[in-house]
């Protein structure tokens, strides 16, 4: 049988109209036999990650309210994916963009944002996520720029309630959905989706995950905040971890709604090495390319699957693509040059031999 496509049945006025409607894809080789596992692949967004959704909504909500003026510079603190999403949105709409980012985040993220026209200001690793946040705030206040405030703005969870949650409802209409698994960066995904699931699919258990060496939610220690909900200090339970995009060194205000209102049923911890291994397994055995954060969510989903009853259906969020992790431990051992086995293959036939 030859696969066929028929187009989307519409023409798009702008790249921004292609944000959302990402596919839920069945896992065929890695899932235990007694359950069915799907992943929601957010790499299908035009900027390659789930953060395209909130980036678009933050800008359009600010335009609608008048908080963002034509031609005004936008500034935001980000580990990368929100910055890439904002760079795409700002390029399409004509806003200058300045990003602040901790110096340890991958160089691919910096180059992608700069390629899309953003300026990227790096902050010292010793100051962690709160340092990049404070730098963005300082720049906004000094220059009269629009501070996107992804960690506090209502526009973040709202877009997941109205897009991500609605897509899940449509895709699983008339089907079982026993578990929804998500990590958190800002907390927008789990907060927004939980509003929908609690209201319309209360039987679905929501599983939240965080790094095992940065278990801030599990610690039970409240986040110190300013009156505006901003982080006043680094959370005492935070430690550096390799799951870029997950858990800055504070609990975001956007996540606090889910914590306070029962927006999740269970909290599971996941380690960096198992997250990397899960991402590699998805690539090698399912052909699904995702980053370390996607590997972390999938590894958590497999833990859920182990104890889930027969016939259970699990959906895990995959936040982004793996291409922005080329310089991270995810690609350790993946070389640009030929291996000995590849050289042997090259030499196994007489033609088209490389020199040396």
UniProtKB/TrEMBL annotation:
Pfam family, one: PALP
Keywords: Amino-acid biosynthesis, Cysteine biosynthesis, Pyridoxal phosphate, Transferase
Gene3D superfamilies: 3.40.50.1100
Primary enzyme class: transferase
Catalytic activity: O-acetyl-L-serine + hydrogen sulfide = L-cysteine + acetate
MF annotations from Gene Ontology: cysteine synthase activity
Residues in Tryptophan synthase beta chain-like PALP domain copies: 16-320
Listed EC numbers: 2.5.1.47
Source organism superkingdom: Bacteria
Cofactor: pyridoxal 5'-phosphate
CDD domains linked to this entry: CBS_like
SUPFAM superfamilies for the chain: Tryptophan synthase beta subunit-like PLP-dependent enzymes (SSF53686)
PANTHER family referenced in this protein's UniProt entry, alphabetically: CYSTATHIONINE BETA-SYNTHASE (PTHR10314)
NCBIfam families in the cross-refs: cysK (TIGR01139), cysKM (TIGR01136)
Protein family: Belongs to the cysteine synthase/cystathionine beta-synthase family.
The protein's name in its UniProt record: Cysteine synthase
UniProt organism field: Thalassovita aquimarina
């Amino acid at each position: 049988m030859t696969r066929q496509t028929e187009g989307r049945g519409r023409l798009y006025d702008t790249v921004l109209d292609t944000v959302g409607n990402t596919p839920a894809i069945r896992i065929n080789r890695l899932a235990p036999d007694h359950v069915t596992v799907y992943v929601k692949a957010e790499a299908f967004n035009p900027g390659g990650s789930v953060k395209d959704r909130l980036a678009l909504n933050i800008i359009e909500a600010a335009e609608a309210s008048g908080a963002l003026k034509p031609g005004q510079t936008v500034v935001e603190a980000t580990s990368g994916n929100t910055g890439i999403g904002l760079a795409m949105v700002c390029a399409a709409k004509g806003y200058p963009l300045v990003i602040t980012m901790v110096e340890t985040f991958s160089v691919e993220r910096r180059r992608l944002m700069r390629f899309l026209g953003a300026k990227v200001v790096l902050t010292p690793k010793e100051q962690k996520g709160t340092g990049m946040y404070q730098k963005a705030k300082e720049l906004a206040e000094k220059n009269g720029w629009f501070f996107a405030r992804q960690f506090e703005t209502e526009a973040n969870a709202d877009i997941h309630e109205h897009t991500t949650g609605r897509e899940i409802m449509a895709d699983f209409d008339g089907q079982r959905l026993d578990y929804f698994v998500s990590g958190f960066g800002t907390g927008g995904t789990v907060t927004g989706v939980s509003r929908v699931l609690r209201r319309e699919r209360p039987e679905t258990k929501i599983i939240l995950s965080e790094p095992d060496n940065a278990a801030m939610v599990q610690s039970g220690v409240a986040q110190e905040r300013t009156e505006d909900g901003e982080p006043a200090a680094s959370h005492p339970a935070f430690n550096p971890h390799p799951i870029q995009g997950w858990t800055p060194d504070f609990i975001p205000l956007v996540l606090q709604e889910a914590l306070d209102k029962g927006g999740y049923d269970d909290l599971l911890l996941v380690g960096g090495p198992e997250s990397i291994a899960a991402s590699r397994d998805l690539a090698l055995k399912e052909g699904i390319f995702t980053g370390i954060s996607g590997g972390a969510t999938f590894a958590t989903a497999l833990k859920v699957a182990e104890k889930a009853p027969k016939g259970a259906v699990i959906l895990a969020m995959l936040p982004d693509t793996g291409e922005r992790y080329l310089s991270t431990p995810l690609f350790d051992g993946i070389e640009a040059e030929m291996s000995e086995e590849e050289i042997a293959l090259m030499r196994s036939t007489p033609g088209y031999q490389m020199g040396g």
